[in-house]
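Quiz preparation item.
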């Protein structure tokens, strides 16, 4: 019984100490209003935690004119890490490659982006050959493991934004030149490397 009580105290305490050490060593990230962690903590204070309030919002955005290599962002109300909570890269023929849940890095029909309350289509300002290389990079990681808090470093775990960020970074385009832990979908929207094709807000 005493061992269980000890575990109940020591592990949360160790987690808190770890968090404080990380925060202390990376104070610039926690104080940067453009950083994911800053946004997350600010939204958590308002009760916005996680992916947001998902439902089928039927935004009915048109996908006409999308080109391979374009980016698609989707978001639900109350998302803790910004306006958008999910992202994918368009590969043509009505399909996107994204990373999500048990599926990991996988190909999905683009039409599931109709379910979001916020959706945005972005054109990357790059030569088609660069976009093709980015798509090929993502394709090579198809089936790789998803982890929502996948750090920017490493190639073992991926989330929806890290795979897109890394694919274009390998081609010399860095959507997150800052020293952040993660890449948030909003960073793509805010980047000078893209232009908005169209967006909807329900």
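Solution:
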């Amino acid at each position: 019984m005493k061992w269980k009580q000890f575990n109940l105290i020591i592990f949360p305490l160790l987690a808190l100490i770890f968090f404080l050490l990380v925060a202390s060593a990376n104070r610039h990230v926690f104080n940067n209003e453009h950083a994911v962690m800053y946004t997350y903590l600010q939204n958590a204070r308002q009760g916005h935690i996680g992916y947001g309030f998902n439902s089928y919002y039927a935004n009915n955005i048109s996908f006409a004119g999308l080109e391979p290599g374009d980016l698609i962002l989707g978001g639900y109300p109350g998302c803790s890490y910004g306006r958008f909570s999910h992202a994918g890269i368009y590969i043509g023929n009505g399909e996107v490659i994204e990373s999500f849940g048990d599926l990991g890095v996988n190909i999905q029909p683009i039409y599931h982006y109709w379910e979001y309350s916020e959706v945005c289509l972005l054109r990357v300002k790059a030569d088609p050959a660069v976009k093709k290389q980015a798509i090929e990079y993502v394709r090579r990681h198809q089936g790789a493991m998803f982890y929502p808090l996948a750090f920017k470093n490493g190639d073992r775990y991926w989330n929806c934004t890290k795979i897109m960020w890394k694919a274009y970074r390998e081609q010399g385009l860095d959507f997150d030149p800052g020293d952040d832990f993660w890449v948030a979908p909003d960073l793509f929207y805010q980047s000078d490397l893209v232009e908005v094709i169209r967006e909807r807000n329900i």
